[in-house]
């Protein structure tokens, strides 16, 4: 299922317009990204927790050319499903 299909299905289930669902989804996505950029966690009860790990700049070696390259610092997002969600998924 992709984003468009998720929005369509949510619209059908809730009775709200696809435009409203997509707007809310986009705002939630932006808020989560904003919080992760500040190195904050976002926990959604019964679903899971978004977190981020800050990776420092590091030097690596290209295995083929043996040249040194610098890998830029970055923030790596992570997601961990809650046990409630996992239990619900495995009920069937």
TrEMBL record:
It comes from Metamycoplasma cloacale. It holds the Pfam family Bac_DNA_binding. Keywords: DNA condensation, DNA-binding. Belongs to the bacterial histone-like protein family. GO terms for biological process: chromosome condensation. The keyword DNA-binding applies. InterPro entries: Hist_DNA-bd, IHF-like_DNA-bd_dom_sf. One of its GO terms (molecular function) is structural constituent of chromatin. This is HU family DNA-binding protein. The lineage of its organism: Bacteria, Bacillati, Mycoplasmatota, Mycoplasmoidales, Metamycoplasmataceae. It comes from the Bacteria.
């Amino acid at each position: 299922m992709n984003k468009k299909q998720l929005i369509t299905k949510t619209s059908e289930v809730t009775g709200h317009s696809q435009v409203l669902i997509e707007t809310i989804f986009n705002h939630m996505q932006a808020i989560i990204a904003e919080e992760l950029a500040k190195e904050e966690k976002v926990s959604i009860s019964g679903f899971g927790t978004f977190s981020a790990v800050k990776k420092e700049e590091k030097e690596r070696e290209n295995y083929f050319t043996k040249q040194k390259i610098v890998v830029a610092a970055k923030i790596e997002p992570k997601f961990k499903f809650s046990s409630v969600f996992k239990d619900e998924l495995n009920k069937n």
